[in-house]
Amino acid sequence: MGLIAIALVIYTLSHPYRLYDHFEWQAMAFLEGKAAIRYPVPATADSPGNAFFQDVLPVATTDGVARGLIPFPPLPAVLLVPFVALWGHATNSQLIFAILGALDVGLAWWVLGRLPIRTWVRVAAAIFFAFGTVFWYAAQIGTTWYEAHVLAVGLALGAIGVALGRDPGAAGDEDEHPDEEAAGDVGGPAPASGDPPRFRARSLLPDRRQFLAGFLFGLACTSRLTVAFGAPFFVLVGSGGSWQRRAVSAALGAAVPIGALGIYNLVTAGALLHPGYDTLYRLEAGFYLPLHYHLDWAIEDPRYLPQNFGIMFLNTPVFEPTVVPSALGTGDPLCTAPDAVRGLFNRDCPLVLPQDTGMSLLLVSPAYLLILPALRWGYGHSRLVTGAAIAVLLIAFFNLMHFSQGWVQFGYRFSNDFVPFALVLVAIGLERLARRRGPGLAVVAVGMVAVSVAVNFWGVVWANVLGW
Question: Residue 46 has what pLDDT?
């Protein structure tokens, strides 16, 4: 509870006021019995309206009110419905999702408690998640895209925690659990050939806990679609006894919310994949030319991999900038006074600034390097490590093929899609460093967590100062 309270204070104190609140408008439309929001609504003295939204597909009106469809999966709007019903457009969705972000920190602590790690490793990993990754930036800024991240992260953590709760052998060496895959039920012996037919039939039925894990995972996908590529984790980790039963149980659970999203898209937009994404792509690719989008390429295209890999791993901050960094080349001049002295947080003459297109994941959160010892000792021998690693790689790969990488942002915001799985690897890596290499390397690892927190503090401050 203490970590949740700390996160709540920090997330709410550091968040700025931002105008992008698509999901509030979507929730209002749901309350009107519509899928399409009122759009465009001009600004008034009491409201900024939504005419400045770019991520809306105008549609024919059926009630005399100009409307448009939002392409983003609607789960965050569903969450906001009761709040919007009470307060209308006065709803403070930024505050709501900052609170939800703090609860996500509690979920991370719960998940980490299900791993075979010591208490101080659990504390360090939880602090890394809460304040050493771009989740801090996401939770405090609370605009449309980040609201989706915060909700998806919490649901994915819930799914991972449920799966881990009945699979204590997932983190160990497979050779130490030779009967696990043959077991008819978690924790029980393998059904012998002479067992009653009812017992054997039970082992073929979906596992209820793994169904729940899959359902929560499916809900996460209806907030952020690319989380779906983490599905192999639930084939390797969870209750059910065999990988086949785990996979079927989780798939059935995930199919409920994902199927509901598909039906929603078909009914409201006439396609399983919302056509608003194509509209958004053509708008951004045709307007934001300095970002190197290509209209003749697909929305998801392997040709985007090299430039997006550079954003994810190679982008650096700008040292001694003379203008505010901007991908569009329109930044304000800096250090214009003759006696200007550069400082780390000097708004008029900074020493170093983040880039708005993003920054290297390993510069922003160097403690992600703790994944390496987890892979070194666990990949191929631990179903947990193998499943989490595959989930991280698949989610990252498909995100890197996407035309846009989250601009404008601090750090690399798409990492929020795989941070629940990566957190498991970071914790295991830190535990194994401490166990196998002694206190010296453990101190270095904790130092990496501290550096991650310091960098994200710097980034949150500057991103808010720069109005991102």
Answer: 80
Q: How far apart are the first and last CA of the chain?
A: 31
Any residues with CB less than 8 A from the CB of 286 and at least 6 apart, and which?
A: 295
What percentage of the chain carries pLDDT values higher than 70?
93
Query: pLDDT band at 335, cuts 50/70/90?
Result: very high
Are residues 215 and 147 in contact, defined by beta-carbon separation less than 8 angstroms? no
What backbone torsions phi and psi does residue 42 show, to the nearest 5 degrees? -70, 155
Q: Is 0.90 topped by the overall pTM?
A: yes
10 CB-near residues (< 8 Å, 6+ apart): 131, 136, 140
Residue of 431, 311, 316, 320 lying closest to 371 (CA atoms): 431
- Angstrom distance (rounded) from CA 81 to CA 90: 13
pLDDT of residue 333: 94
Tell me: the pLDDT tens digits for 151-208? 999 999 999 999 999 887 787 743 333 333 333 333 334 444 454 554 445 566 899 9
Strand 352-353 relative to strand 318-319: parallel, antiparallel, unpaired? antiparallel
Task: Please choose, from the candidates 84, 63, 70, the residue with its C-alpha nearest in 3D space to the C-alpha of residue 36.
Answer: 70
Contact 299, 402 (CB under 8 A): yes
